[in-house]
Fold these 2 entries.
Entry 1:
Amino acid sequence: MLWRALLSRLGISLVTLWVVSVLIFIGTNLLPGDVAQIILGQMATPESTAALRAKLGLDKPPYLQYVVWLQNVAMGDLGISKAGLGAGLGTPIVEILEPRIFNTLRLTGLVTVIVIPISLFLGLIAAMHPGTRLDRAVTFSTLSLISVPDFLVATMLVLIFAVFLGWFPAIVYLRGDETGWVLIKTLAMPILTLVIVASSQIIRMTRATVLNVMSSPYIEMAILKGVPRKRIILRHALFNAVGPIVNVIALNLAWLVGGVVVVEQIFSYPGLAKLMVEGVLMRDLPLVQACAMIFCVTYIVLIFIADMATILSNPRLRHPK
């Protein structure tokens, strides 16, 4: 049964990835503007524009462009940049992506290391003391933060910590050799913004899931027998709540990788999301498509891992009737 579920989820993931690739290709080709016109400028003649379009392969039918692009992506060839962002026209996209992917993964990794333990701790503390002032404070705080958009959180943090207090820089400037406290201080603002936004969802889901498990008959029986609530939550309820908690963690990690566009733009962080925005502005379609596929693959892989964790943690899913 486990292998059947694994193969089923894998097949769904591959089909989803193919559908997403079609949507990405269609969406990027619907963007207004012409990359050839952008490269040559407004004074370019129609003949020179047509020649450049032919050189870039933009004169081929859309379906043929999609087939060639999909074959190349499947082989690991992301193509070349048609606008040459920061590296010159014709630069392989892989060379452009490498430093940006490293920056995004570094930021995401630091946020993840902070978010997961803090969120699980606060969610469990709130579940251990339902209805108390502590629980109400955690619930009110998380609801408030979930309701606030990330750009507003980032703006308020800039006003407080960069403008008024002057503790951290408002703009992230990376030379590449930062380590230790210098690196932490440089990345403090985007990290703090992402921690605030991402932790709220995980805290609420952890609390809600644990409390839902606590209403199960076997938990109520343990309570009637006098088992301490802390022991019940940590040794019995938490394991059965792993599936939904892992799902929401996976969703937030996927958001951290692909949904930090606003944060990277506000702080000028040289990550993958900011590169994608630059590609859209320059109408560099291969670059935009490559970034979008990386985001989608990351999202699908994380959801696949979350599904597997849910199945492994729930015997009823491993052995359905």
Entry 2:
Amino acid sequence: MPIKKCYPHILNGFLSILIWAILVSTTQADTNTSDSRAFKRFAEQMASRHGFDARKIERLLAQSARQDDILAAIAKPAEALPWYRYRPIFLQQSRIRQGVTFWEQNQLVLERAAQQYGVPPQIIVAILGVETRYGRYRGKHRVIDALRTLSFDYPPRSEFFRSELEQYLLLSREEGFDPLQPEGSYAGAMGIPQFISSSYRVYAVDFNRDGHRDLWDQPEDAIGSVANYFREHGWRHGESVAVSASVAGELRHRQTASQLKADSNVAELRKRGVVPKHTLPAEQPAGLVILEGKEGPEYWVGLPNFYVITRYNHSALYAMAVYQLSRAITQRYGAGR
């Protein structure tokens, strides 16, 4: 084929590529312009509310990046699974063994936390086990990227995460760290106990008394902070978390949702056909917890401390996983002593 007859095809191909490149660059420019405007508004708010340098905040956000895998992860949380699939994620022999080891290594600190805050060691250990395997896995995303993505590219909860971004920048100023450096979960949770920024600022404690609240590298601070968190959310010293139950009558067929809050009592639950498998006082505050087992629903009477655990993660699945892991660790820990 003569070369001159190729020119129209080459030209058409070149024009197609050129048009595609223009469209892409225009889209990127629009996105960047939109980001810049949103960043500018946020930076100005940080300046007016907290005395930050707005230009520095804008430059900081410009160094963050939207992460699509974060948006994918938040759309499919593990708490959407049925209980019979959720439970094996956390009730593993390796996690139980690691929990016993963590308890042995931090026995004195856990006892001090229990004495000061009234929260038993096994609950603290179980929280740290569920969250990060006792500090082994703390997340792979830069916190600034997670909060930037969810603040500006996740409309369903953008207001909440923008508030967390605000809290994160305040925290970085208070604790003296570079906000571009820390890594955490896809939702911006940080450190061994996976505190979000607002919880870090309010509930984290300097339990090892070194002048810093370090939840990344100091297990003592993580232990004390979890205990403080539970105390502040109403943990009831000496009380249990949940009791398995049977359900009879119409309730078995009608009710499918769990009551996270113990806003009823044992006597009222009994009238509705809920029978705890262990004796509880009639006036004991309680709620009905229903979990999707492999062979059918599992029924539990959730006590006030069950509700307190859901303040860490607003899920009945989460609270039950923490409770059952705490019991498994306690049994293994007691057997070895």
